[in-house]
């Protein structure tokens, strides 16, 4: 599915260089559910962003779906990303001015799908995630758990092969967190590859494999961080 | 506490530099425009207030009715009125009449041309109490040959020497003695003059059968008295301006009523037949903006355009203040957390109001300082555009202006500081700390409404500018019906006025000029295209009309060369023949006159008899209508007589040139002129330039309006820019999310632009009817005007759209091309 070779990311802020990722080599096979764990600031989110083609590495190689994507321009990354990768964020990142329906529809809009298809697909996903009743609400009118379900609905709407989740339960109470994790596990069983950054040991147990990070480096497999 | 407030205010300004710059610059530009407009309106509305007793000074004007129809609204009155009224009416302290001329003055080697001069009597100083620099006697206009000069004219003639007591020559050699020098008048006066000549001199030499006005001829001058008492105002001309100084508490309407009772005794000849006349008193300080009668001395202002300009100034200021409020409110959310913390630690609402108030006051104050710097730097340019006579110092440092500046500052701070401060301090503390605090999502955003309002104003102004320039272009390019290109025009020679050989001299001149290579034709006439035809008469009728049929016609005297020289077209009949004597009962009419007199067409008019006064004439030809004056004025019915009757007044010589070497042709004409008229200067101009001068005022108005529009648009752009910055910042997260889900940079840019331009489109919809109404009103000033075509509105709308897109494009692009990871990091 994807493979990185000595991936390095250096941030420049106020003339101070920060190495967020330090020669990270990482692989995910199709259908895997991987949890990335580590303390705040260890580079988890940066790795996720690069894996999700939102950001480009400073150095190193990245092969996504059989193609080298480490040197792609933003425009091409966008094209490649569309429909193939879904994102779930800790802070949901829903657009406040759009309704639940419209938020979920967004990726299809950018895939230029015709309206009737979009409507049908959104209806299916709403149904599946059990939020049909909330379709005309605005994000502020929903609970956190509901908002995250909308975010997941948006992540899966285009049928991506890969879902990247950045602390999906971080802003939720345990009951709602449980629900969200159930959803992700279910999606995984249906064949979607999932890479999830988390602080929660409970959540990480749902994964097939746990990867630990520290100071921008990957810890050897099986060693707890 | 105040120190703390100022410190915080200054840090905030510094931290948000771009906001501060936009705010200060926008407000400063508007304030500078406001100051200029204030100075202009002040100048225009303060004409003639410098005279001593100006509140009690009145000019006598009259309306003339012919058989019940208004035929003339004259700015002038009759000689003798002032003295008669002073004798008869207790309300009148002083009365005087003046007549105007433009002369050449020579003293030793120094010569000044185009000196504006008034013929005046001793009584002039009873009414206009002008301050003297030097004078020979208490009243310097008592004696024959006496003359009073302005200080600047005296310097031009005599340098630093004392002028009083010296003799100088007027025109071809009339001699006058300087008996007084007065302080130069301010430029905002409805009468402008550098020279007063004693009116009595003219009378004296009139009685002495027109001898030249020389010292040698003034043998018994001391004994000469103007006949007393005045028994008539009927001296056959209405060329005098008449003024009265009234008692402080008298009612000018009652005085005018008394004049109208007296007039029948004094104007017996004029009031014969169907003529009725009504006199009015005009306050002198209202003449400039409100009079606008036939025969004014200086071109009058137009109160409508003055007030329109004033209104424009207010609009610009309001736009700037709206911007200010807009930008401030835009930023207020960012500072919501600060407000919350301050409230938590114990600030009262009014303390918070005060805090913000000080910050906005500081902004206003900095803007005002910058505005004053701009005014000082730009005033030479702007004054050149506005009005030559305006002076910065005379107004800027007056208590009135300083008071107005202070008032603007206070109003500005109150309007633009208090409101946002009040809003900002009213946020609910608990809500402020919620991470998701947001302005209402789907209601009408007042900030966008404010920006839309600015664009309404901007679009109206842009429509205005385009309309003004199109109208000016239309007037300048419209076919005039007369060919004035390559026509050189001079005034008729002055030195042989009234001499019997004058016609022959003119004939010689014309014949000689015609032989110059490159000269196509030479004509002489009492009129010149580009100049108002002053002569009017009403006693014109067809032979089958009733004798009291009266309609107003212009009339002119032309020679047989007039029509070919100006390439006019005969619609019917023939031109005058070269034998002037044989044409003494022939007239040519223009098409408007044919219509007005009541002939069905040109052919029917030609060879028809017509009554003019008590004499029957033959219409020998009909000539096409042409624009005698600018397209502001309607084409009037004109009757052309053949002959040289104008020789007792000013006439014009016109020479059509068709030459590759214009300079040498003109030089040849000059030589002939100096040979035939050695006493007259050869002063010429090309008629197309002179005609174009009529649009000078329109062009100046256009330039001024354009400048103001530019300012208004600039200020509106600054507002939009600020709003866009804020809106894009607010949507950073959304942009990030959209990009994560596959939006392209172009898509994001289009989305953002659509949001901003929607309001421009709404503004366009509102602006169109307003602009249409205002500009149709303005176009009413012109007899010949453009249609308000939809293309003007389209152009203005597209321009506004372009400006809006141009203003926001860079920011939108920057936001759209930003890495979505960076965008989402804001969370």
Overview of the molecule:
The complex is a heterodimer of chains A (225) and B (827). By secondary structure, chain A is α/β, with parallel strands linked by helices. In chain A, 33% of the residues lie in helices and 27% in strands. Chain A is built from seven helices and ten strands. Chain A has helices at 44-51, 74-81, 100-110, 115-128, 144-156, 174-189, 201-204, and strands spanning 2-13, 16-28, 33-37, 59-64, 67-68, 85-88, 162-166, 193-197, 209-214, 217-218. Chain A is globular. Chain B is of the alpha+beta class. In chain B, the strands form three sheets. In chain B, strands 14, 15, 16, 17, 18, 19, 20 and 21 form an eight-stranded mixed β-sheet that branches. In chain B, strands 3-4-9-6-8-7 form a six-stranded mixed β-barrel. Chain B has a four-stranded antiparallel β-sheet with strand order 13-22-12-23. In chain B, strand 19 (609-612) and strand 20 form a beta hairpin. Residues 433-442 of chain B have low confidence and may be disordered. Classes of the chains: A alpha/beta (225), B alpha+beta (827). The A-B interface holds A 49, 52, 54-55, 74-75, 78, 81-83, 87, 89, 91, 93-97, 106-107, 110-111, 138, 140, 154 and B 436, 438, 441-442, 733-734, 736-745, 747, 817, 819-821, 824, 827.
Q: Can you give me a brief rundown of this structure?
A:
The complex is a heterodimer of chains A (225) and B (827). Helix content of chain A is 33%, strand content 27%.
